[in-house]
Design a protein that fits this description.
With about 240 residues, this protein is mainly α. It contains 9 helices and 2 strands; from the N terminus they run H-E-E-H-H-H-H-H-H-H-H. The protein is extended and about 95 Å long.
């Protein structure tokens, strides 16, 4: 093969390789550009989401702080501005606080501040002598809190509210279930004390006695032990 022909073939081969490399480069460049565009969109969305969540958390915390300020306000006739918020009676204060807590929880039900506000709303309903609404509020806390400590504490409050409504069987079952969780965040001795007293008001004396005995035997150093012994003494006398 002549030298000129070999040179021509080599040039054609080089041109083919060059075209192939350019094609691959263009494909890679398009892919890279697409990936960068997607990454940029995701980054912008993430920044927007976290900024939005921060605003939500901040607003929820602000509303919770306002509700807590009402709950902790002083009782007495209005004074000077420096003396802060006051209410004429504890009931007036509780009625104002429960509205604030409810508004916070309704506006931001899934935030930590909103869940805690719902818990405070439920407790304030109990102070106001409205266990039916307390039951509903505690149940909402349980539904939203998942496995967090709020849920366990709300179950305890739920049982108390059920007992206050005369729903003794429901309350007893809730107390019994909580008393089985020895590794949980709630003090089992305190739960047993409430369970025993609920048995008493439900006229289940044998169950009450068994529960108080368990408290005394399993928790001899508990602050509730002396109360349990008194209840046992009373049961023996009647």
């Amino acid at each position: 093969m002549k030298r000129a022909e070999r040179h021509h073939l080599k040039e054609n081969e080089l041109q083919t390789i060059a075209r192939d490399l350019r094609g691959r480069y263009e494909e890679r460049r398009k892919e890279t550009t697409a990936v960068l565009v997607v990454a940029a969109v995701v980054a912008v969305a993430a920044i927007g989401f976290f900024a939005w969540r921060e605003r939500v958390q901040t607003r929820a915390a602000t509303l919770l702080a306002e509700a807590t300020a009402v709950k902790d306000a002083r009782i007495g006739p209005p004074g000077t501005a420096e003396q802060g918020l006051r209410f004429n009676s504890e009931r007036d204060r509780a009625e104002a606080a429960v509205k604030k807590f409810k508004a916070t929880a309704d506006a931001y039900p899934s935030t930590d501040a909103g869940i805690f506000a719902r818990f405070q709303e439920a407790g304030t309903y109990m102070v106001l002598g409205n266990p039916a609404q307390a039951v509903a509020a505690y149940q909402q806390v349980i539904d939203k809190a998942g496995n967090r400590v709020y849920a366990q504490t709300a179950r305890l409050g739920l049982a108390e509210a059920q007992a206050a409504q005369g729903q003794y069987e429901q309350a007893i079952n809730t107390f019994k279930e909580l008393a089985q969780r020895k590794e949980g965040p709630l003090p089992v001795d305190g739960i047993l004390m409430q369970l025993g007293r609920t048995y008493l008001v439900a006229s289940k004396r044998a169950d009450a006695q068994q529960t108080f005995n368990r408290l005394v035997e399993e928790f001899p150093d508990s602050p509730y032990t002396s109360d349990a012994r008194r209840e046992l003494d009373t049961l023996k006398k009647t």
